[in-house]
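Follow-up to my post from last week.
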Amino acid sequence: MEYANFGEFISTKRIEKKITLREMADRLGISAPFLTDVEKDRRNPFDMEKLTQLADILQLSKEENDQMLNLAGKKRNAVAPDLPGYIMNRDYVSAALRAARDLDAGEEEWNRFVEELKNRKKG
Amino acid sequence: MEYANFGEFISTKRIEKKITLREMADRLGISAPFLTDVEKDRRNPFDMEKLTQLADILQLSKEENDQMLNLAGKKRNAVAPDLPGYIMNRDYVSAALRAARDLDAGEEEWNRFVEELKNRKKG
DNA sequence: ACTGGCGTTAGCCGGTAAGCGAACGAGCGC
DNA sequence: GCGCTCGTTCGCTTACCGGCTAACGCCAGT
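User reply:
Got it. Predicted complex:
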């Protein structure tokens, strides 16, 4: 499924699960007005803590969760909020990203990297 | 060289180059008090535009520049500010980062990725 | 002793974001 | 018609952050 933004995503998922807006707000520990604003894309997505709760409440699959995180990042015009923690303080990751950027690595090259990782970890 | 934080880095480099604080502030288009605060690590590092100017003023090598960007990121508790632009809107990069995280990829694996990239682009 | 440059301090301002309570309008069951 | 639930709007408070001006204390030179 395609979603225009983070708010639309969580709104759709919430309604699918037949959860009321006020109930979800309660479960997240926020007010209903705040939640409706986020769903309507008038506020920024939540912080990671609430995003984690959200994934639990909405029972998201890993794919859906990744999608949600990406949408959360895009609205903030930043990287998905689960990634900085991994990149930060791993200077070799930063260095690799710069190398990939400077060498114009494309999608296939990144995918090949992932495949090799999987093979190596499995074998 | 090791630097405790971004401010210490730019302060050290500035003094090495025998540039006065007020002069550097002028060149960056900011006030001297603001600059001193940043050097003393009491304010956040600059935005990318000023970081680029800074690299030019201080005549940083690529390695020094990367180091500066990493330090700028750490102070903000975020990824180095040159990277989000590359990661964002490249969902395959986000996906690869998550895969690497979940598979516990180590430094050697990331470095191998970079080496392969270099070989492929060169050959 | 005076000046001038240097880094620094203190305090202020404007913008933006998180988050809330009060109150509202629409729909529905009785 | 009444009352309830639901989503929503309005306006407010609080906090942080970028950036500034004014003014300070410290030397070095004259």
